[in-house]
Recover the amino acids of this structure.
């Protein structure tokens, strides 16, 4: 009975790997890199760079085409950053949050491309990418906080009373974890469901799910950005 269960679990794992294609490769003992995630991450970065390069070429006072689209996203994030961090925070952090939002958005939507010739996946369907993003935000808070407010930045850990120190520390540990898991879970589940739908009903149902998934990709990028902005409020709002 135990052997049958183990065989079934192994078979399920094999099917899961076939669906996702992480292309895990051990480059050194104990060090494994998911090459598919690396490839898709590079593609996302290249797309992001090209979008800004082409949108900024021959920029017009009255934007149109790609310039209009990119300005919409920049102004959208600018409004969020200004509302959360104020003018001072906007001057310091706008470029970071525009890059963060756009990278996550492109990464989320990459897995929605037709699987023709290339196995397109979202880099954010890999927990390692999501943890890297959340840790970048979490660690960046300390660097920016100290650079902006000095070591007095750490006073928020004992505010309004030293008795709150354990709660603040717990929040600092759990927030990056929950941010990463939320992004990872939503994107991975969407891609798996899309693959299954293409196998069960390859024409009509998947097209509706693709449109819904595109919205989910935008929504998850928005939520991750808003949670990240909340982490930086302690620097620009509460000091």
């Amino acid at each position: 009975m135990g052997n049958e269960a183990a065989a079934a679990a192994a078979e399920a794992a094999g099917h899961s790997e076939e669906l996702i294609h992480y292309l895990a490769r051990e480059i050194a003992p104990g060090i494994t890199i998911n090459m598919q995630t690396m490839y898709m991450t590079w593609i996302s970065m290249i797309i992001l760079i090209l979008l800004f390069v082409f949108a900024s070429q021959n920029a017009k006072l009255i934007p149109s085409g790609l310039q209009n689209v990119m300005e919409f996203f920049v102004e959208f994030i600018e409004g969020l950053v200004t509302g959360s961090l104020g003018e001072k925070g906007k001057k310091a952090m706008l470029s970071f949050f525009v890059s963060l939002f756009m990278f996550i958005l492109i990464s989320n939507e990459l897995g929605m491309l037709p699987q023709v010739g290339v196995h397109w996946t979202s880099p954010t369907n890999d927990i390692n990418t999501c943890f890297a993003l959340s840790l970048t935000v979490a660690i960046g808070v300390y660097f920016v906080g100290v650079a902006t407010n000095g070591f007095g930045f750490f006073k928020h850990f004992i505010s309004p009373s030293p008795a709150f120190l354990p709660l603040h520390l717990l929040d600092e540990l759990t927030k990056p974890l929950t941010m990463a898991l939320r992004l990872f879970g939503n994107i991975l589940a969407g891609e798996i469901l899309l693959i299954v739908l293409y196998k069960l009903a390859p024409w009509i149902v998947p097209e509706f799910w693709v449109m819904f998934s595109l919205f989910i990709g935008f929504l998850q990028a928005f939520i991750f950005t808003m949670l990240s902005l909340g982490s930086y409020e302690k620097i620009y709002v509460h000091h």
Observations:
- The longest strand covers residues 24-28.
- The chain has six helices and two strands.
- Strands lie at 24-28, 31-34.
- Residues 114 and 174 are 36 Å apart (CA to CA).
